[in-house]
User: Fold this.
Amino acid sequence: MTSPIEEKIDDWQKIVNKPVFSKDGKDFGVVESIQAEKIIAKYGPLTQDKYLIPKSSIVDFDEMGVVRLKEDGDYVKHHYKFA
Amino acid sequence: MALKKIMTHDSRLADTAKPGETPSTLSAAAIKIKEDYQNFLKEAQTLMPKVDSTLILDMLYYQTRYPDWEGSVGISIVYPADLDINQKKEWIYQKYQRMSKVEEEKTLKFKAIRMSIEELGKMLNEDPDIQYVSGEATLAPTDSVA
Assistant:
């Protein structure tokens, strides 16, 4: 069964390089690549923070081209930051 | 005066070969190569969904270009946040005799030697807890980890 976001994002490649924001508006950089069930987001120009975010955490990909997550910034940082 | 055929970007794009046909022009060949490359990346992601496709490409390049490549890869393995990472660190040590560095309480980084695509596949089979593998293959062995 496809989730509402999977219906909205028919081609996951179109969110590559798009900005990612948490529920409370914190910036988590841009989408770097797409995995089967997760996306990789990177933040920072030189020493980059990287986040492994489940696709199921995405609640919206709006008309401005912004990927919005259902969790707040602290949750995203604690659970998804891996580098 | 011979008429010069003006090739626009669009006309080049339209000049594609059908599947199974030999490309009739160089531009069609280039487009076919690009399509094949993209299909290859998709296939790699389907077969090894937990591995960064850039790492797969790097490793394949060194494995095929330099048959005596010793499999030097600075590797990062990501585990779920709620897992005992020290147990995984011990497992990596037992398996590869390499001490790994813990980052963000869920990532193990170490410099692997004799790491091949086949070995990477085995590692993923043996440990289903692995969430994501990325890293950098290098031609010469170094002790630094990316």
Summary: Chain A touches chain B through 13 residues (CB under 8 Å). The two ends of chain A are 32 Å apart (CA to CA). Chain A has two helices and six strands. Chain A has a mean pLDDT of 91.
